[in-house]
Amino acid sequence: MTDMTDGAIAPGARRMGAASDLYRAVWRWHFYAGLLVLPFMITLAVTGGLYLFRDEIDGYLHADLKRIEAQQATRIAPSALVAAALEAAPGTAIKYIDPPADDWSTEITVQTPEGRTAVYLNQYSGQVLGTLPDRGTVAWTIRYLHSLRYFGPTARSAIEIVGGFAILLVATGIYLWWPRGQRGGVVSLRGMPGRRIWWRDLHAVSGIFTGGFIVFLTVTGMPWSQHWGGKVNEWANGRNFGYPAGLRTDVPMSGQKLDEIAKTAWSLEQAQIPESDAPAAGMRPIGLDRAVAAFESRGLHRGYSVALPKDAQGVYSGSVYPDDLRQQRVVHLDQYSGKALIDMSYGDYGPLGRALEWGINTHMGQTFGLTNQLVLVAVCIGIVMLAVSAGVMWWKRRPAGRLGIPPMPSDRKVLVGLLILLGIGGALFPLTGATLLVMILLDLAAQRFSRRSDPAST
């Protein structure tokens, strides 16, 4: 046994003390991060899990508008469908959406005095099935709830903050979960549901199985964030009019971006729309029917949308983003000659664009079909379990009348080292870093106030 009479501390005790201090510091910031983001993570998991089945949800809940009986009859010409849509909703037609299958309806978007309206029509008879506000389906509602788009830009910024803290939660959670000699609570549950240890183990086990997926969903969801995603988008698209690296165009460009006229891939949100050449004397626009025929002759996947020209310089913009990334396509046609000004597919994206699009496609449950959807649903259920078990575990361990914040480490050097590591993560996600800085300052202020108000500490 080591002689302690001269005031020296045994090396083993020092190591145990340092480990205990580090555990406290990690636990404290794991608690803070969870307190901030777990309610958001429940919302994101529930809405994200539902949105994985957006086609099934809309096909069932809006069957009267979306679904029709498949027929052998010839489909009605697109221009005739647009004319019928304008009778039902007078205004200006701005988009034609091809049915994705023989038993789905055609959708026409019309700009009316009251706003954009989606008109659904039978592709064989031209019958108007009904109308909704543009992007007014249940699936679009779920998507906007998932992104907090209904609540304005400030709320959408919270998504970026939550994303950064979610990664922090996973990193600190793995450290806290790491086996330290215990046999239970690593991949199994101990005790009964009424006991705190059961909830602790449920939290730890569900966290270790979903942690990697949480990081993946966070990173692949970040491109949609308002600040971080926008800046990365600009950087990834390079200098070639916002298009991915490797594509060169020699056509006049308008100031309009592709994302402003139609749903598009993330990599192409900043892409500018070309302009039609000035027509020769007596030359007339080709019209929607010929434009649609041109898109189909070029092999656009079914379900493509066509943004109609807004003025004499406008173009017919056909785009489609099916589950198969290789079938992604954007084609802009001169409205007078029908010439393809730009014809771009997934293979034309730059390396970063392709990687990000693959991540986004997988995030949305599209890359691997039903397996992709079911795996992500299981992950969403795991995230809800993770959040609920954290709340129950905290409630069971907190002292009466207090928040139950894990204690500060006794060695401040440990805390400083941890905060430096957290700062590195904050630099990668600036909004998260700014929020983290505010939390640190509040924490230090609260500690100082607590010491002043506690006579025993003086």
TrEMBL record:
Superkingdom of origin organism: Bacteria
Pfam family, one: PepSY
Keywords assigned by UniProt, alphabetized: Membrane, Transmembrane, Transmembrane helix
Transmembrane segments: 29-53, 158-178, 198-219, 374-395, 415-442
All residue ranges annotated as the PepSY domain in the record: 76-131
Coiled coil: none
Annotated protein name in UniProt: PepSY-associated TM helix domain-containing protein
